[in-house]
Design brief:
Layout: H1 24-28, E1 45-53, E2 64-68, E3 92-96, E4 102-108, E5 114-120, E6 128-133, H2 150-154, E7 159-160, E8 166-167, E9 170-171
Parallel strand pairs: 1-8, 1-9
Antiparallel strand pairs: 1-4, 2-3, 2-5, 5-6, 7-8
Length: about 190
């Protein structure tokens, strides 16, 4: 993981210790159909799935994955009530990993080139941001991917499975570590 800048020095304020993320979120944050951005029978629905692994390559059974994406036409929905699954596409979903570290979403392929992915897991001091790019797109034109070495770029591209689903494994550390993004002012866009 790249070195991130530390917090700014604030005169007169003592530093406070960091705390890791979770594992409370795994039990507290999931909600009914949180992983269904669209119902499975929706025309054009696709399954985005994978495994979250730690630095030793072991599955992480209590991680939480969130995605945000454009719709099939490339428009990012700007609607309130993403927790309500009333048939309207909100472009946002959440999936907890199972005991084998697996997660799965039912969604549509974004008209843009990628899914924005957020990872929460035990032992992390903050959530991690990354992207899952669609395979087969012109990825050389992407401003982020064009700056990465080929090996790092591969960690951000989903694999099309024989059944048409998209597999995107997340490696928190190690030789196959997924490239994670830094947002210096604390906000993701």
């Amino acid at each position: 993981m790249p070195d991130l800048p530390g917090p700014p020095d604030l005169p007169g304020l003592p530093a406070t210790p960091g705390q890791t993320v979770g594992p409370f979120f795994h039990d507290a944050l999931p909600y009914e159909r949180d992983h269904e951005l669209v119902p499975p029978a929706t025309p054009g629905a696709v399954r985005l799935h994978g495994v979250v692994r730690d630095g030793a390559g072991e599955p992480v059974p209590d991680a939480l994955i969130e995605i945000r994406q454009a719709d099939a036409d490339g428009a990012v929905p700007e609607v309130e009530g993403s927790l309500v699954r009333d048939g309207g596409f909100t472009g946002w979903g959440r999936a907890a990993t199972d005991p084998s570290g697996r997660y799965s979403f039912t969604t549509v392929e974004p008209g843009g080139a990628f899914f924005a992915v957020v990872v929460f897991a035990r032992g992390l001091l903050d959530r991690l941001f990354t992207r899952a790019y669609l395979p087969g797109r012109d990825l050389d034109a992407d401003p982020l991917l064009s700056r990465l070495a080929p090996g790092d770029r591969e960690t951000l591209v989903a694999v099309r499975e024989p059944d048409g689903s998209l597999r995107f494994d997340v490696h928190l550390q190690g030789d196959r570590e997924t490239v994670f993004l830094s947002f210096p002012r604390g906000g993701a866009r």
